[in-house]
Structure formats: structure tokens, C-alpha cells
Amino acid sequence: MAHRALIVIDVQMDYFPGGRWPLDGMEAAADNAARLIATARSRSELIVHVRHEFPDPDAPFFAPGSQGAEIHPKVRPIEGEPLVLKRRINAFRDTDLKGILDRAGIEEVVVAGAMSNMCIDAAARAAADFGYSVTVVHDACAARGLEFGGVEVPAGQVHAAYMASLGFAYARMRSTDEFLAAGH
């Protein structure tokens, strides 16, 4: 079996109801991410937590030192689990994420978190480009509706478009139930 790591990206307070940038389906995504974490812990697999914090205190969300930038209690790391602080969309850029994975001999990464169309997309593509086998657990991810050129794109469509795109050439797509049922 390949050496596998679970990467949980940006499951932070500002993305939840009452936060500064709530995402559709974030509660359910966090519940599924918590299930993935529990299983990975029971198997002593590497779990890497990624937390985004913008450098500007006037950021629209994830402001430095704010409660909104904190990892949600459902998925908080425990002692010994690496926590990567990122300031950019791609969790690999200007962080030690790749070093953490490589030092542990990781060959396969499982990605969960938020936002589907930004940080999940960037991390999954980068991981594939670095040569890791990538699985995205799609129902452990969440998105927010977008607007472009006067066209409103609902969150569900944003999420589906990005998952379909990643699933085409970058990652295997699995639901939490499918992933866990497959013995992962």
C-alpha cells in the first residue's frame, strides 16, 4: 500500500455560518472531514492541517489573529499532527507542505476542505504535478456561489464544475462513504 497522507485545508471559522465568508455546505463538509481524520488517526496515517491567514489585517476573511482564521473545533489538529500556515491559495506555495510529505515518504494524498474552486483545486493540481497520487473527497469540500459577467453561479454548480474538472485529469473523486468503504 502506498504511503498516504490526509491533507485538510482551510476548515476555518470564517467559512461557517456566522463567519465573515460562509460557504454552502460547510457544516456537512466539516463533518465528513472529521470522519476522514478519525479514520486516518485510527490507522496512524499522516494528517496535515492547513490554515490560511491573509497578511493584511483588513482582509475580508481569515484576518491575522482573528477568531475567523482559527481551525474549526470539528477538525482541529492534535499533538504531533503538522499544521501548515499558508498565505497564498496553493498550500504548497511558500510552505513546507511538500517537505513534510516527502520526509514521511508519502506517495498518495487525500484532499478535503475548502474552497473547492480555490484552495482545494490549487492543492490537488499541485500535488498531481509533484507526482503524488491524488484523491479528492468531494463531499468533504465546500464552495461559495460566484458571479461572472453578470451571471450568478450557485455554489453547487461551482463545486460540481471544479470537482468534474479535477476528476477529469488530476484526481480520483470519492465521497466520504466510498472512500471509507474501500478500506481507506
From TrEMBL:
Keywords: Hydrolase
Protein known as: Isochorismatase-like domain-containing protein
Cross-referenced SUPFAM superfamilies: Isochorismatase-like hydrolases (SSF52499)
Database matches in PANTHER family: ISOCHORISMATASE HYDROLASE (PTHR43540:SF1), PEROXYUREIDOACRYLATE/UREIDOACRYLATE AMIDOHYDROLASE-RELATED (PTHR43540)
InterPro entries (alphabetical): Isochorismatase-like_dom, Isochorismatase-like_hydrls, Isochorismatase-like_sf
Taxonomic superkingdom: Eukaryota
Domain Isochorismatase-like: 5-147
Species whose genome carries this gene: Ostreobium quekettii
Family: Belongs to the isochorismatase family.
GO MF annotations, alphabetized: hydrolase activity
